[in-house]
Write a structure and sequence with these properties.
Elements (H helix, E strand, L loop, with lengths): L2 H7 L5 E5 L9 E4 L11 E6 H5 L10 E5 L14 E4 L5 H30 L4 H12 L3 E5 L4 E4 L11 H9 L4 H6 L2 H10 L4 E5 L2 E11 L2 E9 L9 H18 L5 H11 L8 H10 L9 E6 L8 H15 L4 E5 L2 E6 L4 H14 L3 E4 L9 H17 L6 E3 L4 H12 L1 H7 L2 H13 L3 H11 L2 H8 L3 H15 L6 H16 L8
Parallel strand pairs: 2-3, 3-4, 4-5, 14-15
Antiparallel strand pairs: 1-5, 6-7, 6-10, 8-9, 9-10, 11-13, 11-14, 12-13
Length: about 525
């Protein structure tokens, strides 16, 4: 080990002064100076009580390194050796010697582990093989996971660890951290800590076994992490350094091999359609087939999102949901975009998807939207946009979810498109008399406009009266009063159509009712 490692193990307050030509000196062994000591070598470190050192004049000019521990005897300045560290009287020589032996043992273990890993690389070991070797070296399970918590490789685990570490049990059983455990153990914070630490670090928790974690950077991008879990026994000194070395070796292998699984390639294909591209239907399908994905010309997609803005951990939480849903709905393609989870289907029953997603969204307090079915894969961006706007409109209207369908909001979508193209046209599409009626109701505490809307939606006075909990005659009075005050003929189908369009516009843009 290096001399600076020794000095780092000794508190600065316990060092009086030193005479060292350099701190890069390599130490091969440590000895306790005794009256029988005779041979002194350059790379040996001696723990030397002052009285013993003075009694051995033969070592005073030795090139060995001495840690001088004062006792009742003082060492004259002219008797100091060429290389020494003078410690304070508080330092116990025996304890210091034991500490140095432990450091040397740790250094030897770390070096041996690094050599084993290096030899495995020379032998062109596979990633699972290297993980297995690491598990044997460390005596605890070693896992390789990507940034979504998905398990890519794991060393042998002799017994089910679920009783002492349910997260480890879940990963070994399901292949990732489930959505329930993701929330229970605040895993979003764990992932943030992993990504933010360039070196291996110890993660302790009263709820589960201790872990050593080290992020993996592949081709200069954050890929995931390697993890050792103390389920068989406590960690030992030096294992942080071994994990650091292991992660560098894994990064080399991951860069050398094609580490992206097929599902990631298909996700990349789908996301490429959301930006400028030169695909034709035929060329896209041909490339998809190259990844083993045969398109069936019968598609729909679902977007899942949080109903309100989340903190910075939103994307990581969505990753956990993505993994969970991959078990519920095998065969789906999925990816994250702007903190929304995009689920693409081309081979699963829409009814089955709706049943599973409705329960899932309710459980985890999510909202979602179904696009209309479509048959041309290059139309994916259009239906993605429709699904995205459907969530936005549904939340804006405070409609009950958790899942919305585009068909329910298609007229609102059309209104939004007009607003995007030319906002002033939208106001011109509203019937002035209806706006005046709403303002009249507001001033006079009446509800002629609302009552007329319910009547137009139900086409029946009795049904409309029941919805509003009023008598049928009251309902009739309100509708007739609406016609009287506005001068609009509700018997004219075009008037009714224009009124319902105006109601939709005012749902989305109630500010049009404000009086200037």
């Amino acid at each position: 080990m290096k001399l600076f490692t020794v000095l780092a193990a000794i508190s600065e307050e316990h060092i009086q002064h030193t005479n060292l030509p350099e701190e890069e000196i390599q130490i091969y062994q440590a000895c306790f100076l005794s009256s029988n000591s005779s041979a002194f070598t350059a790379n040996t470190l001696y723990v030397a009580p002052a009285s013993v050192y003075l009694a051995l004049p033969c070592c005073h000019q030795s090139t060995s390194l001495f840690l001088l521990c004062p006792d009742e005897t003082e060492i004259p300045e002219e008797d100091y050796p060429p290389r020494y560290v003078l410690l304070t009287p508080k330092v116990n020589a025996n304890q210091l010697f034991c500490q140095l032996l432990a450091l040397l043992h740790t250094e030897s273990s770390v070096t041996e582990a690094k050599l084993t890993i290096s030899h495995a690389l020379f032998d062109r070991v596979t990633i699972p093989g290297l993980i297995e070797i690491a598990g044997t070296l460390l005596g605890n399970p070693v896992l390789l996971q990507d940034s979504t918590t998905k398990l890519l490789a794991c060393s042998q685990v002799e017994q089910d660890p679920s009783d002492q570490d349910e997260v480890l049990g879940c990963v070994l059983r399901q292949g990732f951290v489930s959505a329930d455990l993701f929330q229970k153990y605040d895993y979003a914070d764990v992932l943030r800590a992993i990504e933010g630490n360039a070196q291996a670090f110890l993660l302790s928790s009263p709820k589960k076994c201790d872990r050593i974690l080290r992020r993996l950077m592949v081709n200069h991008q954050y890929f995931g992490w390697v993890c050792s879990i103390a389920s068989n026994g406590p960690f030992r000194q030096g294992e942080l350094e071994i994990i650091d070395f292991l992660s560098d070796a894994l990064a080399m292998l991951l860069e050398r091999e094609d580490v992206l699984p097929v599902y990631s390639q298909t996700e990349r294909l789908l996301t490429s359609l959301l930006s400028a591209h030169s695909y034709t239907e035929e060329s896209f399908k041909k490339q998809a087939e190259g990844f083993g994905w045969k398109l069936r010309d019968n598609y729909f997609l679902v977007l899942l999102a949080f109903p309100s803005p989340q903190e910075e951990n939103a994307s990581r939480t969505m990753m956990a949901y993505q993994n969970h849903l991959s078990l519920l709905l095998p065969g789906m393609k999925s990816f994250l975009r702007q903190e929304k989870l995009v689920l693409f289907f081309d081979s699963i029953s829409e009814k089955l998807v709706e049943e599973n997603l409705t329960a899932f969204a309710r459980r985890y307090h999510l909202v979602g939207s179904f696009s209309r079915p479509f048959a041309h894969i290059l139309d994916f961006p259009r239906y993605y946009h429709q699904a995205e706007k459907t969530i936005e409109i549904g939340l804006g209207l405070r409609r009950k979810g958790p899942l919305f369908r585009f068909e329910e909001f298609s007229l609102y979508y059309m209104v939004r498109r007009i607003q995007d193209l030319e906002p002033s046209d939208l106001r011109d599409c509203c019937i002035d008399e209806l706006i005046d009626m709403f303002r009249y109701d507001r001033r006079n505490d009446t509800s002629f406009a609302l009552s007329t809307r319910v009547y137009l939606e139900t086409h029946n006075l009795g049904t409309a009266a029941q919805i509003l909990y009023i008598h049928r005659n009251t309902m009739l009075y309100r509708v007739e009063k609406f016609s009287e005050l506005t001068g609009l003929d509700l018997g004219d189908w075009m008037v009714r159509l224009r009124l319902m369009t105006s109601f939709l516009i005012l749902d989305l843009y109630p500010e049009l009712l404000e009086e200037k």
